Amino acid sequence: MDLFSNEEPSIKVRTKKITASKKKILFNRVIGQSKAKFLLEKAILNERIPTAYLFYGQEGSGKNAMAIEFSKALNCTSGSQIPCQTCDNCRAIGRLVHPDLKFVFAAPAKIKTEDVVKHIQKLAANPYLPSAYSETAGILIDQVRELKRTAGLKLYKGKYRAFIISGADRMTTEAANSLLKILEEPPPKLLLILITSRLDKLLPTIISRCQLIKFSPLKETDIVSALEKEGIEPGKAKIVSRLSMGNFRKASALLEEDYNAMREQAWLLLIGSQNGDDFQKLALIEKIAAGKSRGQIKELFHIALLWLRDLQVLRIRGGDLQEDAGFYNADQIEKLARLNDKLSEVNLDKTIVETENSIDLIERNVYINLILINYVTYLFDINLSQQPR
Length: 389
Ligand SMILES: [Zn+2]
Known about the structure:
Blueprint: E1 13-15, E2 24-25, H1 34-45, E3 48-50, E4 52-57, H2 63-75, E5 81-82, H3 88-94, E6 101-105, H4 113-125, H5 141-151, E7 161-166, H6 173-184, E8 190-196, H7 204-207, E9 211-215, H8 220-229, H9 234-243, H10 248-256, H11 259-272, H12 278-289, H13 294-316, H14 333-342, H15 348-363, H16 368-385
Parallel strand pairs: 2-5, 4-8, 4-9, 6-7, 7-8
Antiparallel strand pairs: 1-3
Helix pairs in contact: 2-3, 5-6, 8-9, 9-10, 11-12, 11-13, 12-16, 13-15, 15-16
The protein binds zinc ion.
């Protein structure tokens, strides 16, 4: 099935006269996502705006950001470049305070209004932020009832009334059924944007009434240029984007963590495993595992992979340590050289596979210390077998 087809019989597509012919659409506040942008631009230029969109795909891929920019574009009063970011509608939507816009997210039932306002303000400042509320929070029937109440009201100053429902998979069954009623008989000028990273958790009856737009994990190069725009130094941007797995939210979080300390520990894991007796190895494992979550250990292995990939490049280049070789750890050339000496006889391909296996085991919930012991033993054994006797 072509998920992007306009021909779905159950989807209501409105044809609306807007003078779009000379308009240029610029979604440049959204990182990457050229396919999603193309489809949404086409909808605006062809004046075919469905009642409901469903943006789905990986977390941190820019679904909230896109929903906000799309709502701006539809309501922008500029005649040429949209969203212009300067007209009243663009500015108010950007701050998520436009009277014709509602941004709904999962929150605890007894949340205070001031906390809702605070969260909305943060999100408006950075739409790539994660939701502040735990997995147990939901989107409740009252939130959808409020949407229903306002859905048919006269527009205040926008051209469309936009409801953005972020984390739509967190709707309670009651809330979802209530939303379904809006979708079945939508008032004119209503645009619903449902957002989820867990498509399988949504009612099929809701999915079938929405036009689906997929958000893929971001490309490394897109994350790098977005981070560089924010003033992050290129070497760091490159490593963080590699570790983020196409998730900009994760990339931002990594920047806040003490990344250099993690890199040092990954290096120690690789180089330290080559030294000492069993007792020293256990001490190393304890040091590395101390106070770290599963996710952080996984990150550590990903960082170890980057050291190993640098070694691969270094070997291909015959040991040439020039800084322009495109190393992930270009700012740590001395450490790279020491690691290269230490692992000079080691089969890197096999070690990379072993590292990837360890990451796989972490994802499968195997006991962390056991994974570390196996890994360290592996590194030690291959080194030992290559020692001259
Ligand atoms: Zn505007």
